[in-house]
Amino acid sequence: MKACTNLSASCRDRAFLSLAILRRCRKAALVTLDMCLSNARSESMISRRFLAAEPGVTKKSARFNIKSDNLFLAALGPNRRTSVLSLFNRRKLCGFVLLDGETFELVGNWELPGEARPFGYDFWYQPRHNVMISTEWGAPKRLANGFNPADLEAGHYGQCLHVWDWNTHKHIQTLDLGEEGAIPLEIRFLHDPAAAEGYVGCALQGTVFRFYKTQKGDWAAERVIKVPVKKVEGWILPEMSGLITDILISLDDRFLYFSNWLHGDVRQYDITDRRNPIWWVFLGGSIQNDGPVKVLEDSELDSQPSPRIVKVHKCLVVRSPQMLQLSLDGKRLYVTTSLYSAWDKQFYPELIKYGSVMMQIDVDTVKGGLRLNENFLVDFGAEPEGPALAHEVRYPGGDCTSDIWL
């Protein structure tokens, strides 16, 4: 894979880091930083009022640089302050936004008029197959204060994948994953640009779906992984799902990784058999044997995992693995622990008090296998203006979750 075929890089230096803001903020909806590596400085703050001029794009989530050198943003949900004359706002839909990659000025909506979807979150595209597929989280107003099962019952969370024509920007298909696919978050195509398939992690039921292009030319999805729920007591519900919050694929398309934010483990699957993709390592979570939760029935473990202590800081890991980033050689898997401040507060209140951490998992790329590196830890609770809730890791030179090849 040559650098000049990498659409995200566009054969140019990666000079800016974009930070999308999820919660309501008066100052900005997107911040860009000049990426002088030792001294990043604020370069541009794009006011919410400018983005609000585009219907239904208030909450930002995933973002990519695309071949046109525009910055591509996915909206999480509609902007309630948009004019009532806005068709998208009346229908409570959300879409995608384009920003100029050099000036960061608003270009407009990416999708065609009337093509926005009820929910949004992540997306991935494969130009060779003229396709983009996007996912759904939920209504920002509902999830902003934590997870309430009643909101799920009321239809405020998504369970669909949306297929788009990459060239025409037209929505062409919806894949309803059903209850097992509720809250599909992170989506990844295989890195091989000839491959017309990939995986999506569905948070609520702890499932992974494989999506693929059929012989007819349309798209389909099938569940390939399900993390068994654990029957518990001392928790908010009698059953605890894994809550898959992040998923990634190694650059050689051999290993699939995902995090179970509630159970507290990171898993590695060999997906060389694409349809039947186990190694895992526990880093924390809600079922540790020193906590209030008692596991009554578990089809995977004989006993509850013990707390993890990282030797380098003698630091007890009282949080749980969330976002993942893999080194380009596939040997180092970096893990952060903060999902979203409101959900952090609900499920892991100690995160708010002590801040999040970043850990390193050493990967056996030959035989497969995971091992926590006990000599590495970044404690964001010790930051000068902390405690900080570190969420996502990016490599300045490109990584497994942002680069797309022709």
From TrEMBL:
Topology of the protein relative to the lipid bilayer: Peripheral membrane protein
Source superkingdom: Eukaryota
Pathway where this protein functions: Organosulfur degradation
MF-aspect GO terms: methanethiol oxidase activity; selenium binding
Catalytic activity, reaction form: methanethiol + O2 + H2O = hydrogen sulfide + formaldehyde + H2O2 + H(+)
Keywords: Acetylation, Cytoplasm, Membrane, Nucleus, Oxidoreductase, Protein transport, Selenium, Transport
Localisation per UniProt entry: Nucleus; Cytoplasm, Cytosol; Membrane
GO BP terms, alphabetized: protein transport
Subcellular location, principal: nucleus
InterPro entries found in the cross-reference section: Se-bd
EC number in record: 1.8.3.4
One Gene Ontology cellular component annotation held by this UniProt entry: membrane
Role summary: Catalyzes the oxidation of methanethiol, an organosulfur compound known to be produced in substantial amounts by gut bacteria. Selenium-binding protein which may be involved in the sensing of reactive xenobiotics in the cytoplasm. May be involved in intra-Golgi protein transport.
Family: Belongs to the selenium-binding protein family.
Protein name: Methanethiol oxidase
